[in-house]
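The instructor's notes for this session suggest beginning with a concrete chain rather than abstract definitions. Hand out the sequence below and ask the class to guess, before any prediction is shown, which regions might be ordered.
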Amino acid sequence: MAKFFMTHSWHDIVFVDRLYTDLCAHGLGGFLDKYAIKPGDKISKEIQTGLEACEVYLPVLSHAALKSDWCDEEIQGALTLHNTPGRNHRPQIIPILIEDCRVALQKYSFLLTRLYIDFTQDYDTELEKLLRGLGVTPKPKPAAPPPAEPPTPKPDAPIQTAPPKPVSAPRAPIDLEQTYLDAMEAYHFERWDDAAKKFRAIVAQDPNYEDAAIKLAELERRLQIADLRARGAAAMTAKRWADAAQCWQTLLTLLPNDADATAQFAEADRQLTAQIAEAQRQMQLPELYNLARKSIFTKDWQAARTTLDLISSIDPNYRETKQWMERVTAELWKLAPRTRIGNDGKEMILVPPGEFVMGQVGISDAPPHKVYLDAFYIARQLVTNAEYKKFLDATGHRASQHWSNGQIPAGKENHPVIYVTRDDAVAYCNWAGARLPTEAEWEKAASWDDAKKVKRVYPWGDTFDANKCNSSESKIGDTTPVGKYSPHGDSPYGIADMAGNVWEWCADWYDENYYRNSPARNPTGPDSGQYHGLRGGSWFNLQDGTRSAVRNRYKPGNLYFYIGIRCAE
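After discussion, reveal the predicted structure:
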């Protein structure tokens, strides 16, 4: 016997109890929350289990049910299962109508396209229809008891007779000829609803009058097609893909070669398939979340990170995923080495994950705002001419413009490479197995004091000191060897030359208004632009241009005597 599942509003529990009892009396097994869910059970889990196990889904539809979020969730869940590949369209869906709520039911057009059982009519008749639809033979009704003998009236009692029941007058016959002419006029002027109404009245009185029955069939088909198109389009607009697919599929049974309906059905079906796949992915979330927590509580940080990454790919806002991700990431970086050697032999410094204040009050670096960054490594030193020469020899990339015959200027092997475009900088970083830092990464590495949770104006503090960097105040008028001002001019993380000497290319496109709408986590700049960002100031700039928050920009193809490279990972 088929197993059934009933969705209902508690406002309709009297009817639902009666129907459930009658179905069970005919040998059918079913899920009704009132009986199936016990104290202490997890309601959502039991309902999902009941839906997955049932063969027939019986949504009991009333105005109250159609307003219920819980009923909506169960209806959508049943539809998802019905359309899931491999389930052979199980459960079968049989709508149960107990109130005339067909107007409100428009939001579930996929239910309207199914033959429903109309319990607004005679209960016993509709129960028989439902049972036969479930493959069950209705039990014979018990014979009615013989009518009781009327009591013999007392001799002196007046005989009382019941007043006769009023008999409704028969509907007055219509003037067939006049109605037919009116119907044809409406038909001619394409007032389809009016024409159908008049032809319907004619056929009700005389099914064989003229061609009224043929015209009525044509009009009802036309109206059905128009209704399906309208409901299909509305469902597409509202992204109710299951409803849309049902409408277009039904329309194609009427118009098999309709190009628009074919295209619309294909799109709705594609979206529905994606929706079902996403629903299946969502169903994995509770299990994955528990797996991640087990790994966290056993301090298996790498396993926890792998599982949390998978959860984030499905729903980054699921429960406490973001908070756990921050905790796990922080724990993993505690295990990471403070420094490492990059592929080009340069020392890379770890900048741990966390929040910092980006920007300062000014022109291009306002407003100050909090930004969270994942951990990253950044090179302690700028790329030198000698290191850039190794890259050129290994790759055949073109030499810096001011090198004579491809040779490093004498005595400047340990100076930062200059006259490099942004493409040159990217090419070097790729060769070194690294990348350019984002503006946010660069600024945090240059200015943030993690121990005190404060931002510095310059890498070493809030007061400018010409003895700690190579700026215009130094009167040198050229680049200096990398690390010349280390450690006194280093940032809180021990990174050198982040004020003065040369500007440094960053990964971001530049937008002077970007901070006003910048993401709060791992900002990477605008998607496109005319300029790329530069940071750090140079020997050519006065002290204000060497502040850690100052922003600059150049076209990516430009090269200058004060722009160099620093890598990040």
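Then share the key points. The first strand starts at residue 3 and ends at 7. The chain has three domains: 3-133, 275-335, 339-564.
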